[in-house]
Specification:
By secondary structure, the chain is α+β, with helices and mostly antiparallel strands. It has a domain at about 5-90 and about 200-360. Helices cover about 35% and strands about 20% of the residues. The protein has helices spanning about 10-20, 30-35, 50-60, 65-75, 90-100, 105-115, 115-130, 155-165, 185-190, 195-210, 245-250, 270-280, 335-355; strands spanning about 5, 40, 80, 85, 130, 170-175, 180-185, 215, 230-235, 240, 260, 300-305, 305-315, 320-330, 355-360. The protein has a five-stranded mixed sheet, with helices on one face. It has a four-stranded mixed sheet with strand order 1-9-10-8, with helices on both faces. Strand 6 and strand 7 form a beta hairpin. The longest helix is centred in the C-terminal third of the chain and has 18 residues, at about 335-355.
């Protein structure tokens, strides 16, 4: 079919709407996850943990942190997998892909060398689960390398992470930030047998495009395969895929608003798309030496309508019950109305956190 032709403004609006960052707000955290597909989990809480900040950025005052725990642990409307919360509607397709997931040769060799350890972990979970990793003995015969520095010498967390990706174990809850594990058969129920690997992949491509609105067919950041329909964007040489439902609603514009985005927000994940569609280059300076930082350790991008206009460098001071604003960086000159909107959103964020703002005046 002939590709749809989009202006740059239309492209940006489609992306913003797909990420639930327009004026109309969703009602709850399940609705957020159903649309965007994944809510990233990360312990970095300069202002708030990403799994709490991401729903709040979309829902606003209607969101309370306990809603996420209830949706995951009580109602089972969301589930945790590989560092994100996903809607239960995606689980059947994801389980098919987990079960048939290819592994690197070095990983397969490590699993083979530790086949008895793997069996021990599964047997312990079947008998006594759900359990924390600390409750499971480390009986590994061969340790794995730790070049990344993410793992301790204890091999249990590494084995659990691998078995999760292969669909054999699952996270069923948390004790603080520690994960509770169980065997997938008990946590998730019977595996689906009516989907092939390719069918499941196509379904997940559709869901990725739904959350993206507009994305490249092939991309290591957010590839969507042949999902949706082809599109071209004014001034871009990329071959895009667009969600047809987003096209149908393109003229139904509820308007924009200000959104303060956690650095691990899915809206920011596809860095090349940010540059191509929004002319916005974002670099998280968390791991940059302090003397080389331009915008701050954990600067939050500020979206106003369909433009990135600045970054917020701020941190929560729990002891003094303040949200301390170190800097508001303007990427473009702000109009007085834009500044008022940004400052109002910062004050709303502070009130949601239950603290005062320091540094705006």
């Amino acid at each position: 079919m002939e590709p749809h032709r989009l202006t740059r403004e239309q492209a940006r609006r489609i992306i913003v709407r797909a990420q639930l960052l327009e004026a109309d707000r969703p009602g709850d955290v399940v609705e957020v996850a159903e649309q965007i597909g994944a809510i990233k989990i990360d312990p970095t809480a300069v202002i708030a943990p990403s799994e709490q900040a991401i729903p709040w950025t979309r829902i606003g005052w209607g969101y309370e942190p306990g809603q996420l725990t209830k949706a995951v642990e009580d109602d089972r409307q969301l589930f945790e997998y590989a560092g994100s919360f996903h809607p239960a509607s995606m689980l059947p397709a994801m389980r098919v892909r987990m079960r048939m997931r290819p592994v690197r040769e070095s990983t397969a060799a490590w699993l083979e060398a530790n086949s008895a350890f793997r069996a021990d972990v599964l047997a312990r979970l079947r008998a006594d689960g759900p359990l924390l990793a600390a409750d499971i003995p480390d009986t590994a015969a061969v340790p794995a390398g730790n070049d990344s520095g993410w793992y301790s010498d204890n091999q249990v967390p590494r084995m659990l992470d691998l078995l999760e990706r292969l669909g054999e174990v699952a996270v069923v809850g948390r004790a603080g930030r520690l994960r509770r594990w169980d065997v997938a058969a008990r946590a998730r129920g019977p595996e689906p047998d009516d989907l092939t690997y390719d069918e499941a992949g196509a379904m997940l491509d559709e869901r990725r495009l739904q959350g993206a609105g507009l994305a490249r067919q092939k991309s290591s950041w957010s590839g969507v395969g042949l999902a949706g329909e082809p599109a071209v964007v004014e001034g871009s040489a990329w071959k895009w895929r667009v969600d047809p439902r987003a096209l149908e609603a393109i003229d139904d514009d509820p308007g924009g608003r200000v959104a303060i985005l956690n650095p691990y927000d899915g809206m920011l994940f596809d860095r090349p798309r940010l540059i191509e569609a929004f002319d916005f280059t974002y670099k998280l300076e968390q791991f940059v030496p302090k003397a080389q930082r331009v915008y701050g350790y954990f600067a939050h991008p500020i979206l106003c309508g369909d433009r990135f206009i600045g970054l917020l460098d701020a941190a929560l001071d729990k002891a003094k019950e303040n949200l301390v604003v170190a800097a508001l960086h303007e990427l473009v000159p702000w109009e007085s109305e834009e500044r008022e909107m940004v400052e109002a959103e910062i004050r709303d964020l502070a009130e949601w956190l239950g603290v005062s703002v320091r540094g705006l005046d």
